[in-house]
Amino acid sequence: MARPSNQESIHPLKLFDIAKNEKRLLYTSAPMVRYSKLAFRQTVHHYGTDLCWTPMILAKEFNRNKFARDSDFTISTAGPQPPTIVQFGANVPQELARASSLVAPFASGVDLNCGCPQSWACSSTLGAALMEKRELVRDMVIETRERLQQDGWDVGLEKDMNNPKGRSVSIKIRVHKDLRKTIDFITTLLAPCPTTSSRPVDFLTIHPRTRQTPSSAPINVEALSILTSTFGDQVPILLSGDVFTLDSLPFTSPIHTFTSSSSSSSSSSSPSQQQAPSDITALVQHDIPKLSGLMSARALLANPALFSGRNSCPWEAVEFFLNKTIKAPMPFKLVLHHISEMCSPGMGPDPRDRSALLNKQERAELMRCGDMIELIDFLEEKKPGGLERTI
Length: 391
Ligand SMILES: Cc1cc2nc3c(=O)[nH]c(=O)nc-3n(C[C@H](O)[C@H](O)[C@H](O)COP(=O)(O)O)c2cc1C
What we know:
Blueprint lengths: L11 H10 L4 E4 L8 H9 L4 E3 L3 E2 H6 L1 H7 L11 E6 L3 H11 L5 E6 L4 H5 L10 H17 L17 E7 L4 H12 L13 E4 L13 H11 L5 E4 L52 E4 L1 H5 L12 H13 L4 H11 L17 H7 L5 H11 L9
Parallel strand pairs: 1-2, 1-9, 2-4, 3-4, 4-5, 5-6, 6-7, 7-8, 8-9
Helix pairs in contact: 2-11, 5-7, 7-8, 8-9
The protein binds flavin mononucleotide.
Function: Catalyzes the synthesis of dihydrouridine, a modified base found in the D-loop of most tRNAs. Specifically modifies U47 in cytoplasmic tRNAs. Catalyzes the synthesis of dihydrouridine in some mRNAs, thereby affecting their translation.
Pfam families: Dus
InterPro entries: Aldolase_TIM, DUS-like_FMN-bd, tRNA_hU_synthase_CS
């Protein structure tokens, strides 16, 4: 199906609809503090990611401080933006509504972080602490919808998905140890607004780990299965967690019959830092028919081309990213971190996908580059055939 030409304001529900018509899951890149900045979002979008999240931005600071606004949220003025969801950390309805009003002209939607497990966030009733405050979360999303509507945006869910002024309001959650609490939480969030008689969130991202589960432990596929069968007919649901490659998901889905298109890379292979299972088929016990899409964080950092079907990072993605950082600058140390991630072993369970563009010693050398010129010279030397001349 043809995509609407005005990508800048494409409605996320339209993207879900396009993916569904293409008989596939929606592909999204996760909010990642520090990392999911514009150049990275542009890179993953170029390689098949449909919808990109910004890092979590603290709504209160964003509303009050011009420097916070300038440093936290960058958009492209040249060419279309990747469809972008701006994620906020907030615990006051008015703060989330005001911050959302500021970014609505430049984004496809806004999202509330109800999943950050870090103690600084939870002690301020932000992130995962909100999983214990379902009424507050509901008040926040309802007030945000009302504010966006007052500003002239259209927040009528599916009714507005073809509307260039349509915007989404969504949340990203973790699960509770007692899944009944998560079911209560989502039930509260989906109950129709008294004024509009429709659900207050456009879609939902579920990270099926509890606040206490380390990210090295596998996601709780059973919880995902229960939650999608309970709510998947009422609201589109994205999975965040353990999307390492497209052909190694720990569950099956009738709209995901993917076979990997390539296994690129060169150089030496070293064991992945991550604990992806080596025989994924042994773990596949669930079919998740009501899941609408995938969100990846760590695996996209290591391989921004993941959603184009590659199981490890190709050199051309490193180069594409480098080009974008020159036009959408970010602190040099951050550029180095990104390049180092991309040149490290991939995260797929198949040992063939764990090859790395640079070996450990080369990556240590990479980290000693002092500026962009040194970095370009270094990569020029390491990439077979040298870098393209566009840089
Ligand atoms: C470096 C990093 C930063 C993150 N920052 C955020 C964030 O700002 N907001 C959020 O909701 N989740 C954040 N997360 C969590 C991810 O979005 C995601 O839910 C989690 O990493 C599981 O996905 P994965 O297995 O694909 O990594 C972050 C994760 C990482 C690795």
